[in-house]
Amino acid sequence: MTPTQAALLLVAGLAGGLVNAVAGGGSLITFPALLGIGLPPVSANVSNALSVAPGYAASVLGSRADLTGQGQRVRQAIPAAVLGALCGSALLLSTPRAVFDVVVPFLVLGATAMLAFQAPLRRLAGQSRVHSPRRARATLQLAVFLGGLYGGYFNAALGVLLVAGLALVLDESLRRVGALKNVLSATVGVVTILIYSVFGPVNWAATAVLVPATMIGGYLGARLASRLSSRLLRAVILTFGTVVGLVLLVRAF
After folding, report:
1. Within 13 Å and on the Cβ side, how many CA atoms surround 114?
2. CA distance 253 to 159
3. pLDDT grade for 128, boundaries at 50, 70 and 90
4. Within 13 Å and on the Cβ side, how many CA atoms surround 107?
5. Which residue among 119, 135, 141, 147 is the one 20 to 30 A from 159 at the CA level?
6. Where are the transmembrane segments (predicted)?
7. How high is the mean pLDDT of the chain?
8. Which of the four pLDDT bands, split at 50, 70 and 90, describes residue 167?
């Protein structure tokens, strides 16, 4: 890795961590940066997943107060997250590179769209109601499994997807939904670390640069969140994600 490439990853990691703390969707910065230094899409994907995973644990610590009273729900959801992440990781590692190259532009564009429509989804989710304990548990586990499947295969915007899915099946405040999302994101992150570090084509040099950068960026973002315009940051990320997705789409076809 050249000094220029390391500097690019450092900046991308700082920006990605900051954006994750303020608006979400930071992987739409770090993943394209890994592609930009020449990593193949699969290697960029697994390296990105490992790079952002440590930040999930920090987010759990920061949301402990909103996890109060959700112990049973967490115990019900974690197995589904683990199973989904295992299936998603296995799917990624068994997918030919040519297939992933075709799929990834749509995943980037889909993740960007989820970020764009996050607010309408949250408003829609506010209308959800619990019907019966058994049905509530089943719908929760299904939503978590699908989120874990997505996160195991392609990590970008996992938090956005989980918030949207959880809020649609739970009659809870968004703060409590977000706290549960943090636990499940951390769970998916642990699974992907264990699998990708052994079986995945991880670029450890890139990961070594990104991990501390994303953690520092996340810390700064949490400190500056009240001073920064999340709307402006979201607009920048949406534009960036759309451009990257379209470029990857043109290259794939």
Report:
1. 21
2. 29
3. low
4. 25
5. 135
6. 77-96, 102-121, 142-170, 190-220, 232-250
7. 84
8. confident
